[in-house]
Design brief:
- This protein is 27% helix and 26% strand.
- α5 crosses α6.
- The protein has 540 residues and is α/β, with parallel strands linked by helices.
- β16 and β17 form a beta hairpin.
- Strands 1, 16, 17, 18, 19, 20, 21, 22, 23, 24 and 25 form an eleven-stranded mixed β-sheet that branches. An eight-stranded parallel β-barrel has the order 2-3-6-9-10-11-13-15, surrounded by four helices.
- The N terminus is likely disordered.
């Protein structure tokens, strides 16, 4: 019976291979120069303000995951953050411009958020009490988190007409809040001003001219309160959807070196209820549409504010809490990792994922805090992909997405390969900018032992002195459990990524293969491939 079952499995596997198409492709990486550079803490995740009764499409996916009600003592929360060593956490979201800080005199009472029909986004104003702020900062301190905090930019303004707000920003509540933060020596990396108030806004908008004037005011507050600090927090704005004229005007009005970072939001997959989310994610032409946004923002900053850098301040793929059983499953990693690769090519320094926890798009399960597949995708990127972004040219079809960075913390480069095809298996030949074959299959077949190494040194000048080391590569292949794209379990080299018996984040180990063995990328899979022997002068 066992032998028959083995034969059955063998036959099924053989038929599956026959059903696949095969494509050979060459990927050429230019290791001579970098084309862009990310921040040390490129990977970022958000904590939002939504209460537990926030619902979309008759589904309420937020639970107790907000800045206000999240269980900060949950051991998995600390472990998930600590695994990154220094995970950037951005506190913000739709309700941030209705948050009052419970310190000093206020224009209205400081009460928790409650549903209100005529309120912005259907909610009243909310309250951040200072004892909760203390608790949050204790979490950030013990886990090594790097904090970006989104400030209320509507405080003191009035509504001119539906969706449009006017008047100068009242800075008194923010000033008292920042003073309290500094008096307690809480480490804030950056203060972000407002959420989705740019351009036509989402729910509310403010003119670029008024916004620019308010930023000058906020910059003066930061300089004043942090006067005795050696390093002052960055000023980040506007945290909204990119509109070229509005962003350019903001930089022009606020003036030189006022804004350190321009943040924009991306939800390029559309509404979370869209039944076509998966087909969009697996469509390379659809994924590439947003590339124009990255390029245009880069050009706007170069023209009107070259002192500033670009961040993606919030991105969940699908808006309105993400797609149920899409945003929290394996298939979403095709979109997410492609976004990280694409954004980094266009000088994006930081990419903040909506969310760390909460909604359907959380990196962690809202109820159990067990990592979803995208958590491991983020962690692998953080550990493997260095700051230096390298140019990549591929002969493959558009369904194979390829990105390259200097490896993080070690020599060589790391490739990210994303196979969106459901039937094409790629065999990859990697070359460097001198057009030498990294796999060295044909050129090294005749060499053995010392003769092999000597010949390799002569013919492969891109390896240089590294030829004396053992030549290998490190592969991390990501696939869904049971081949189900909507699985919430990711496999790393065929092994399920699950918490250890002690409840810890599992180790993420590669398979090490000889450099002269072929590279295969199976249909609907993702791979990080490290080449420690790739001689890339740009990465030294």
């Amino acid at each position: 019976m066992g032998f028959r079952f083995f034969l059955f499995l063998l036959l099924v596997s053989f038929r599956a291979l026959l059903a696949q198409e095969f494509e050979a492709a060459t990927i050429k990486v230019d290791g001579a120069t970098t084309v862009a550079e990310t921040d040390d803490n490129f990977i970022c995740a958000t904590l939002d303000w939504w209460p537990h009764d926030k619902c979309n499409y008759n589904h309420c996916p937020w639970g107790y995951s907000s800045v206000i009600n999240l269980d900060l003592s949950h051991p998995l929360l600390s472990k998930a953050i600590e695994a990154f060593q220094h995970l950037r956490i951005r506190i913000g979201g739709s309700l941030q411009d209705q948050v009052l800080y419970d310190i000093g005199p206020l224009r209205s009472p400081c009460h928790p958020f409650r549903k209100m029909n005529d309120g912005l986004f259907g909610y009243s104003k909310g309250c951040l009490r200072m004892n909760r702020w203390d608790e949050l900062n204790r979490l950030f301190s013990r886990t090594g988190a790097v904090v970006t905090f989104g400030l209320n930019a509507l405080y003191g303004r009035h509504q001119i007409r539906k969706g449009v707000w006017g008047g100068a920003w009242d800075s008194t509540n923010t000033l008292n809040f920042i003073k309290y933060t500094v008096s307690n020596r809480y480490q804030i990396d950056s203060w972000e001003f407002g959420n989705e108030l740019s351009g036509t806004g989402v729910g509310a908008s403010v003119s670029a001219e008024q916004y620019g004037k308010d930023l000058i005011n906020l910059k003066a507050i930061i300089n004043q309160v942090y006067n005795n600090w050696h390093v002052k927090p960055l000023l980040v704005a506007p945290g909204g959807f990119y509109e070229q004229n509005w962003f350019a005007k903001l930089l022009q009005v606020s003036g030189s070196r006022t804004v350190n970072v321009m943040t924009h939001h991306i939800y390029n997959l559309g509404a979370g209820v869209d039944p076509n989310l998966v087909s969009k994610i697996l469509n390379p032409h659809y994924l590439s549409k947003v590339e124009e946004t990255f390029y245009s923002l880069y050009r706007t900053i170069q023209t009107d504010g070259p002192w500033a850098s670009a961040w993606v301040g919030e991105s969940g793929g699908a808006y309105n809490s993400g797609g149920h059983m899409v945003s929290n499953t394996f298939v979403n990693s095709f979109w997410y990792l492609d976004q990280l690769g694409m954004a980094s090519k266009y000088h994006t320094k930081v990419y903040c994922r909506q969310t760390l926890i909460g909604g359907n798009y959380g990196l962690l399960n809202t109820t159990t805090l067990v990592p979803n597949p995208d958590y491991y995708s983020a962690l692998l990127w953080h550990r493997l992909m260095g700051k230096g972004v390298l140019s990549v040219h591929s002969t493959a079809s558009p369904f194979l997405r390829s990105y390259a960075h200097c490896s993080k913390g070690k020599a060589g480069i790391t490739l990210l390969l994303i196979n969106l095809s459901n039937q094409t298996r790629f065999q990859i030949n990697v070359e460097n900018n001198m057009n030498f074959n990294l796999a060295v299959r044909k050129t090294t077949a005749m060499y053995r032992g010392t003769a092999f190494m000597g010949g390799l040194k002569k013919s492969m000048s891109w390896i240089g002195s590294k030829a004396d080391e053992q030549l290998h590569r490190e592969e991390y292949h990501l696939t869904p459990k049971d081949g189900n794209l909507r699985s919430q379990t990711m496999l790393l080299n065929g092994i399920p990524l699950t918490l250890t018996d002690n409840g810890n984040i599992p180790s993420l180990e590669p398979v090490r293969l000889s450099l002269n063995s072929p590279i295969f990328i199976n249909p609907l899979s993702i791979a990080f491939i490290g080449f420690p022997n790739f001689d890339a002068p740009a990465c030294v």
